Amino acid sequence: AAMVLGTSVEMKGLTVVDAYTSEDGAMTLTCEQDGITVHIRTVPMKDENGNLITQDAYLGKTIDVKGIVDYFDGAYQIKVFTPENIIIQ
Q1: What is the rounded CA–CA span in Å between residue 62 and residue 5?
Q2: Which of 34, 53, 57, 65 is deepest in the core (most CB within 10 A)?
Q3: Spacing of C-alpha 68 from chain mean position
Q4: DSSP H or E run through 81
Q5: What pTM did the predictor assign?
Q6: Residue 83 in contact with residue 65, Cβ under 8 Å?
């Protein structure tokens, strides 16, 4: 898995089962697909009106995501930098 660090990836059909927004506005989304857990981490993101996007936008929804493979706190995750890279189905 270390060989794919920094690689662009795309996953479809992830169900957001848990979510957390940190004090700075970054989110961690815990997703599942076919019994596998995938962690998504974002930078602070704003909508087209300049409002901070929080976990409420994604919790309980099915999403498609594009991002970069990253490693944080002993686990691999997908890092997302723009709201356009998280598509709600």
Answers
A1: 25
A2: 65
A3: 10
A4: none
A5: 0.89
A6: no
